Amino acid sequence: MSQITSRLPVEIDMPGINALHERTFGPGRYARTAYRIREGTRAISTYCRIALDGDAIIAAIRMTPVLVGQKEGALLLGPLAVDPRRANQGIGVRLITEALSAAKADGLALVILVGDMSYYARFGFKPVPENQMNLPGPYDPERLLACELIDGATAAYHGTVRA
User: Dihedral, CA atoms, 6, 9, 15, 20, nearest 10 degrees?
Assistant: First the structure.
């Protein structure tokens, strides 16, 4: 078995990342609100990561800088994609941990996402208080989660999330 490595993606990785997203999420992924927020933004930020088994991209996480209302210092996590054949091996956990650590080291305050509390709680994500933040397009407000990289940061963020 090859050793799994991780690193920042580069432009040449984008076809492999896109193919991973297709395998993992299918064509319906473009209708998700998070995809709408990211439209027109750079596909790669300082906090994105990929996992490789040899030369094959087996997982990827995208982290997009966003404003909440007019406030900077936040990232939108997602998508997190792990090749279905490599699920439940800790690869997604590794990428999330690396991305959050890098963002925290750079002084960012908050990471938000739409996801399952049962999965993301282990990283410190908590539900966003009702009506404090909103996303353009359809989403389940109960699945809007935030991870404070600076203690108490969530309280300072109010409004619509946008790139």
Answer: 40
- Distance of alpha carbon 120 from alpha carbon 77, whole angstroms: 11
Residue pair 50/5 in contact (Cβ under 8 Å)? The answer is no
Separation of alpha carbons 100 and 160, rounded Å:
22
pLDDT for 57-96, tens place per residue?
999 999 999 999 999 999 999 889 999 999 999 999 999 9
Look at the pTM and tell me if it is higher than 0.85.
yes
* CATH topology assigned to domain 4-162: Aminopeptidase (3.40.630)
Residues with Cβ within 8 Å of 62's Cβ and at least 6 positions away in sequence, in order, are 38, 43, 45, 48, 77, 78, 79, 80
Domain spans in the chain, listed from the N-terminal domain onward: 4-162
For 32-63, give one letter per residue: b (16+ CB within 10 A) or e.
Answer: bbbbbbbeeeeebbebbbbbbbeeebbbbbbb
